[in-house]
């Protein structure tokens, strides 16, 4: 493997190196969780961290450009439908549906809830209302 190792961290700099590391992860995963040694677990974690960093840098998705897009992304990430998200946020499902369908403008209470519970950047919220 030609990936660079700095200290205990692994750095992937090309798609070919990425593929090699993914094969190493696959090899370790095929052993089965109960058959991994402590050294295997450390190596696996090092590979996973390197892959995550590489994917974040090279395959990142563009951020949503609207508040509704951000809400849909959060629902997707949390694997929730509209009704489940409304319950999570502590608001009426009808209110949430109306906001998503642009039949109602988000009020300050709603904006505060999505900031607190969904951890949406307040600057993003203010820029997109």
Structure, briefly:
By secondary structure, this protein is mainly alpha-helical. It contains seven helices and two strands, in the order ββααααααα.
Query: Total number of β-strand segments?
Result: 2
CATH architecture of the largest domain: Orthogonal Bundle
Helical amount: 55-70%
Note the gap between the termini.
Answer: 49 Å
The sequence of SSEs as H and E is: EEHHHHHHH
Mean pLDDT: 88
Written overview of the protein:
- This protein is mainly α and 129 residues long.
- It has two domains: 55 residues, no CATH class; 61 residues, lambda repressor-like DNA-binding domains (434 Repressor (Amino-terminal Domain)), CATH 1.10.260.
- Helices cover 64% and strands 5% of the residues.
- It is built from seven helices and two strands.
- The chain has a two-stranded antiparallel ribbon with strand order 1-2.
- Helix 1 runs antiparallel to helix 2.
- The protein starts with a strand and ends with a helix.
- The mean pLDDT is 88.
């Amino acid at each position: 493997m030609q990936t660079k190792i700095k200290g205990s961290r692994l750095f992937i700099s090309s798609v070919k190196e990425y593929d090699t590391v993914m094969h190493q992860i696959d090899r370790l995963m095929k052993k089965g969780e109960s058959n991994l040694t402590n050294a295997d677990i450390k190596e696996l974690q090092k590979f996973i961290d390197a892959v995550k960093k590489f994917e974040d840098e090279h395959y990142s998705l563009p951020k949503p450009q609207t508040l509704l897009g951000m809400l849909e992304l959060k629902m997707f990430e949390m694997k929730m439908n509209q009704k489940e998200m409304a319950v999570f946020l502590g608001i009426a499902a009808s209110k949430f549906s109306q906001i998503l369908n642009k039949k109602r403008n988000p009020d300050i209470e709603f904006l505060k809830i999505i900031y607190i519970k969904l951890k949406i950047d307040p600057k993003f919220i203010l820029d997109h209302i």
